[in-house]
Amino acid sequence: MNSTRKLPLVASALAGLLLIAGCGTSTPATESQPVNTSTPSSAAPTAECLQVGADVAPAIASGANDLPITPTGRIAAVKAPGRADAYLVAMEFDAAGGDPEVGVWMTAAIEGSPPPIAAVDGFAQQFTVWPGTINGEELSIVEPGAEDAIACLE
Fold it and tell me: DSSP state, 129?
């Protein structure tokens, strides 16, 4: 399926995530905030690390843009602070034979095939077509809990 065919699916999926996530209390991103800083953080997470179901990584990867992404098997999640029924999922993936990258996505479930998916950080937004906004609010690596999700991969 090409990117133009995915747009209606992505739009309806985002609408569902908006209803589920609601208007959170996260810090809005601004142009001066960093996208992704680099590799996973070595800091210990401050939130509870959660296991992610086997269907979640392929669901995230199904939103790859022009280049396919291949999950490496390293995936973890945390409950998104300040957002009802939302999780931040950190996943390591390979893209076009390059070095593994880590991206962060938001979803309403971490078991089964997840409902709407949103791209939170720069790598998730760069390599997938999942929307990077919720209720007009730009998502970024500074989303509360995003760094915790990445730290859960350690």
Answer: -
